[in-house]
């Protein structure tokens, strides 16, 4: 799934999901990548920039059609819909 800081990367992706959802946007890989890029442009912390970069690299793997339905995205979709684990 993600790299060394899985939970921190998931939190960064969660921030992006929340921002998109609060702005009534469509939550998909492309919109997440766009939001992460926006977050990176505004970020000053090197540690958070590294997490954003890690999350971005992981999500880019889902742009290929053969990976479009991988289970790793399940938590993102369910989180966006308010699903309780």
List keywords for this structure.
62% helix; globular; mainly alpha; 85 residues
Main sheet characteristics = none
Shape estimate:
globular
Q: What order do the helices and strands follow?
A: HHHH
* Structural category: mainly alpha
Question: What is the arithmetic mean of pLDDT?
Answer: 80
Our measurement of the CA-to-CA distance between the termini, rounded to an integer number of angstroms, reads 18 Å
| H/I helix tally | 4
What's the total number of strands? 0
Radius of gyration: 12 Å
The helicity comes to 55-70%
Low-confidence stretches: none
Strand content: under 5%
Give a short summary of the structure.
The chain is mostly helical and 85 residues long.
Describe the protein in words.
The chain is globular, with a radius of gyration of 12 Å. The two termini are 18 Å apart. The chain has four helices and no strands. With 85 residues, it is an all-alpha fold.
Task: Map the helices and strands.
Layout lengths: L5 H17 L6 H14 L3 H15 L13 H7 L5
């Amino acid at each position: 799934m993600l790299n060394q800081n899985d939970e921190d990367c998931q939190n960064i992706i969660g921030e992006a999901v929340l921002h998109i959802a609060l702005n009534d946007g469509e939550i998909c890989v492309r919109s997440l990548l766009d939001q992460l890029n926006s977050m990176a442009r505004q970020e000053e912390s090197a540690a958070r920039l590294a997490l954003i970069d890690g999350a971005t690299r992981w999500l880019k793997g889902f742009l290929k059609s053969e990976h479009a339905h991988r289970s790793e995205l399940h938590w993102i979709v369910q989180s966006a819909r308010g699903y309780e684990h």
